[in-house]
Design a protein that fits this description.
57% helix; mainly alpha; elongated; single chain; 168 residues
Amino acid sequence: MKAKLPELELAIDGYITPEQAAKIKVIKHHFEDLNSRKADLEKIILELSKRYQSELDLILTTPSMKNTFTAIGIISEIVTNMDVFPTAKHLCSCAGLTPTNNESAGKKKAIIAIARMLPTAIYKMLKNKEVYNADLYKKSNTVPIDREITLTEALSIIKAQGYRLKTS
């Protein structure tokens, strides 16, 4: 490195060759052009999304959802008419958020359960036209705590699921 010390000093002091300056100028113009194109595309997207403004406003009430383009991305994926999904579970399934039985140690199931909270809340927000509420992510079909079933009913359910009962 001692042999390259003069070059390092020049680099630290900010000396660049005319060729490097020309390349930096080209890169700078290219960057400015890309920013200009990005701004043009964002303007077009915002114009197209105006008809969904009420839905966007609902989604933007979700905590940490501050970027309009994120909300636009969500709407572009799931549409605004929640009648196409019978339940929030169907929306989660469409988003690929359904755990499978081969997940290791339940870890991925827990991650998926947490990830399902957002589409579940968004489903209910768009379905009911109401702003974010922390309770929206909870399952709409939670089983009552004091639910009871008879042995005969349990056996019927098991048989209906395709299981054969064998005595040990």
